[in-house]
């Protein structure tokens, strides 16, 4: 098997109802339920204007910097409910896709979204469209089509590991990765956190929130509270 030039056509996928349930929870609440170790780096930002959160299953693509040949194969394979997640080894020199590829995925394939660890182009039009696309920025310089590359293998995107079929949840805050094998357990904890956060927001707005934990934690961590003016 030629490692570096592999296209796996099949993935293990989570239950569709499980995926749908995550779409109703803010990414931040789900991230808290996972120990806050699941969010893609903040370099990867929302570039379009979606009307809802992005929530789907990962169709992963690995490529060398600035090359999108394997990504074009993923375009052929993509189905409704997929989120294409593209690993670019952190390269920022070439755009990975533009409006033509975007519209094929959004209008014809009707996938859930795209996550690219690299730049895109045609931002003047893409920024107005509703399918979520996350990228690191823009550049007019286009990609190469030489390979190597792989589809549906484990990748690193935004410094986070992504496996084919993992649940990808994105909103205005950014993108998180939910391991498919742990998703059911994470969902229940995330629901509890989301409900608790709603109560905390209301308490904060009314000033009834209990802030005593701050001084208690500072004391436990060895902070010294000094009732004097600091003089340099």
Describe the protein's architecture and organization.
Helices cover 31% and strands 22% of the residues. With 232 residues, it is of the alpha/beta class. It has a single domain (5-192), classed as Ribonuclease E inhibitor RraA/RraA-like (Glucose Oxidase, domain 1), CATH 3.50.30.40. Helix 3 links the parallel strand 3 and strand 4 (82-87). Helix 2 (27-33) crosses helix 6. It is globular. The model has no long low-confidence stretch (mean pLDDT 96). It catalyses: 4-hydroxy-4-methyl-2-oxoglutarate = 2 pyruvate; oxaloacetate + H(+) = pyruvate + CO2. Its cofactor is a divalent metal cation; Mg(2+). Belongs to the class II aldolase/RraA-like family. Keywords: Magnesium, Metal-binding, Methyltransferase, Transferase.
Which sequence of SSEs, written as H and E, runs from N to C? EHHEEHEHEEHEEEEEEEHH
Estimated share of beta-strand residues: 15-25%
- Annotation, overall tally of beta strands: 13
| N-to-C CA distance | 66 Å
GO molecular function, one term: metal ion binding
Cofactor: a divalent metal cation; Mg(2+)
Subunit structure: Homotrimer.
InterPro entries: RraA/RraA-like, RraA/RraA-like_sf
């Amino acid at each position: 098997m030629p490692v570096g030039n592999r296209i796996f056509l099949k993935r293990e996928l989570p239950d569709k109802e499980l995926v749908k349930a995550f779409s109703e929870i803010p990414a931040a609440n789900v991230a808290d339920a996972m120990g806050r170790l699941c969010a893609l780096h903040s370099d990867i930002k929302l570039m379009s204007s979606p009307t809802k959160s992005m929530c789907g299953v990962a169709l992963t693509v690995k490529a060398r910097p600035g090359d999108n040949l394997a990504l074009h194969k993923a375009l052929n394979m993509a189905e409704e409910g997929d989120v294409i997640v593209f690993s670019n080894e952190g390269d920022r020199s070439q755009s990975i896709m533009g409006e033509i590829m975007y519209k094929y995925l959004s209008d014809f394939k009707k996938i859930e979204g795209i996550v690219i660890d690299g730049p895109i182009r045609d931002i003047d039009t893409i920024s107005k469209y509703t399918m979520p696309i996350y990228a690191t920025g823009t550049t007019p310089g286009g990609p190469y089509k030489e390979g190597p590359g792989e589809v549906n293998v484990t990748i690193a995107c935004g410094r986070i590991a992504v496996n084919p079929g993992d649940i990808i949840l994105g909103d205005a805050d950014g993108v998180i990765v939910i391991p498919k094998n742990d998703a059911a357990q994470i969902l229940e904890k995330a629901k509890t956190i989301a409900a608790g956060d709603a109560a905390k927001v209301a308490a904060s707005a009314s000033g009834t929130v209990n802030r005593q934990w701050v001084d208690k934690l500072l004391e436990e961590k060895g902070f010294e509270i000094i009732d004097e003016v600091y003089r340099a």
